[in-house]
Specification:
Helix content is about 75%, strand content about 0%. It has about 140 residues and is mainly α. The protein is elongated and about 55 Å long.
């Protein structure tokens, strides 16, 4: 069982979540993993010999890492959510994961680190999309 799921399960029984805990845990984990992958990909991109070709990828990865980290952090505090904040944040996470994933996929044939990052972006994009469909 993941730490996100364990933490969600540790909430007082009178604090009921408005969403399925498994789906929530999955999006928290996917966003945290994507933030880590994007940070690592940025570092790897900076070590590539043709750095100018990697500038768009680096910028998108930086933005993606920040948005995914913020999403994971906010979603990890479900007892105090403000729906007017959570929904647009998760929508922004979907959007940046799409853009970053698209860019990383362009570089994936030449750079394994971009392939891994693209996979993390797609996983997060999917998890966030599933979360949005069940969010009340």
């Amino acid at each position: 069982m993941s730490y996100a799921r364990q933490m969600l399960g540790s909430y007082r029984s009178d604090l009921t979540l408005d969403v399925d805990a498994e789906v929530l845990a999955a999006v928290i984990e996917a966003a945290a993993d994507c933030a880590q992958a994007c940070g690592a990909d940025t570092d790897a991109d900076l070590s590539e010999p043709h750095l100018a070709e990697m500038v768009a990828c680096i910028r998108l990865c930086l933005d993606c890492a920040d948005i995914c980290a913020a999403t994971a952090a906010v979603l990890s505090r479900p007892a105090s959510w403000h729906r007017r904040v959570v929904r647009p944040l998760v929508e922004a996470c979907v959007a940046i994961c799409q853009s970053c994933g698209d860019e990383c996929e362009q570089h994936a044939p030449r750079h394994a680190h971009c392939r891994v990052c693209a996979e993390a972006c797609r996983r997060c994009e999917k998890a966030c999309g599933e979360f949005l469909t069940i969010m009340k």
